[in-house]
Amino acid sequence: MQPYLFPYIGYFQLIAAVDRLLILDDVSFIKKGWINRNRILMNGEPHLFQVPLVDASQNRRICDTKIVDGPWREKLLKSIRHTYGKAPCFDQWFPQVEAVVRADVTTIAELATLSLRHVCQYLGIPTPMTSTTDRYSDPELSGADRILDICRCEKADGYLNLPGGRELYEPSKFAAHNIQLSFLKPPDVSYRQFGNSFVPHLSIIDVLMFNRPEQARRLVQSAVVETAEAHVTPNSGEGSL
After folding, report:
1. Residue 48: strand pairing partners
2. Which spans in the chain are helix H?
3. Are the CB atoms for 39 and 47 separated by under 8 Å?
4. CA distance 144 to 230
5. pLDDT-based confidence at 139, cuts 50/70/90?
6. Of 153 and 89, the one with more pLDDT
7. Cβ(168)–Cβ(183) under 8 Å?
8. CB of 162 within 8 A of CB of 201?
9. For residue 160, which of 221, 227, 219 has the smallest C-alpha distance?
10. Which residues lie across from 107 on neighbouring strands?
11. Pairing of β 45-50 and β 37-42
């Protein structure tokens, strides 16, 4: 998965369900995606926040995309403090958010990955994470071919992705290499937010402002894994991954 900044709870449901998370940070940055931005609750409505970047471009890798050095950190923390100061878990969770936002890092890949690590540590999710920049960088491969090559390097027999991956990956291509392709099926998640109508699909920041770690772990562990059906017989012997 690409590194997302304090992503929605489904990302952590995925992390909790796998043996290892490979952070795909050596691919092209996606504008208007979730790499440097997300949504929090403000006045009962979803509010978009984002980390400003230096010349962000789809022609630049995520790991090479620099963060702007400016007052955005204090402004973001002030917004979160103002919005969630009276949330039941603010005192417990806000210091973790603050540690990430104030971290001395220079790229959005580092910042987003740090947000993932802090959330997992806070929730007690032990899944190891590895950057593809460190181990699996191969500019000649892309798409499913890149994923299959990473699976081969990991000696993996399965690959799990979020629901959006159903439009990207063909089960038969994975099955032909003895790799079981599966997708997460997240349940509907809801919880009390200041007594207002529930606003879904917000950053994990919101989830952890209103749910203690043990409550949030139950939400994270509630997802179901569905195996994708393939209509081919897996290969064996020469040529298999």
Report:
1. 39
2. 9-17, 72-84, 90-101, 108-123, 132-135, 143-154, 171-175, 204-210, 213-220
3. yes
4. 15
5. low
6. 89
7. no
8. no
9. 227
10. 66
11. antiparallel
Span of 6-10, 71-75, 186-190, 201-205 with lowest mean pLDDT: 186-190
Could you read off the pLDDT of 49-106 as tens digits, one per residue? Answer: 999 999 999 889 999 999 999 899 999 999 999 999 999 999 999 999 999 999 999 9
Kindly state the tokens that stand for 29: 């940055």
Q: What angle do CA 236, 238, 239 make, to 5 degrees?
A: 90
Over 70: is that where the pLDDT of 137 sits? no
Distance CA 152, CA 163 (A): 23
Contact, 171 vs 202, CB < 8 A? no
pLDDT exceeds 60 at position 237: no
Query: Is the model's pLDDT at 232 over the cut of 50?
Result: no
Cβ atoms within 10 Å of 168's Cβ, excluding its own: 10
Cβ-Cβ contacts under 8 Å for 85 (sequence gap 6 or more): none
Position 167 scores a pLDDT of 87
Dig out the tokens for 26 from the structure: 């050596």
Residue 45 structure tokens: 């409505």
- The pLDDT mean for the chain works out to 91
Dist CA 166 CA 182 (whole Å)? 9
Residues sharing a CB contact under 8 Å with residue 190, sequence separation 6 or more, in sequence order: 198, 200
For residue 234, give the nearest of 146, 141, 171 by alpha carbon: 171
Q: How far apart are CA 206 and CA 6, in angstroms?
A: 10
